[in-house]
Amino acid sequence: MASFNVALGIITALLLSLASPRAEGARAFFIFGDSLVDSGNNNYLATEARADLPPYGIDFPTHRPTGRFSNGLNIPDLINIHRKLTLKWDGDKSGERIGTEMILPYLSPELTGQRLIVGANFASAGIGVLNDTGIQFVSVFYSFINPYIVI
């Protein structure tokens, strides 16, 4: 039921973003969430919730795992592509796209300066609002460090 509510929320946000009028100055795109929208923050964390090995990423443009918990692009990637296709440079009527880069994970070392102004992805798999969210990853991690700890 919770995954249905999350999916419904994402679809609603997507539809509202497509239907709402565009502000001229709004160009940054910041993402918060869990594994449904994570673009690789967990690659930089000590966690068992990882997506940096095959088969993840087989349908991504590079055909390599990126840390996304999908086989290709996720919802923020699709929104970002749509946003780039509809926004134009100031006064430019040619329809040239604004940039071609993806929104980077917040923990990525490549996210500096101008890339941060474009936006950042703060999502991380295994997080949630409840205290027991992701506890299965913590117990696996601690049992790996010290097999005698019982959680």
UniProtKB/TrEMBL annotation:
Organism annotation: Carnegiea gigantea
Keyword Nucleotide-binding set for record: no
InterPro entries given in the database record: GDSL_Est/Lipase, SGNH_hydro_sf
GO terms, molecular function: hydrolase activity
Signal peptide location: 1-25
The protein's name in its UniProt record: GDSL esterase/lipase
Superkingdom as given in the UniProt entry: Eukaryota
Keywords: Hydrolase, Signal
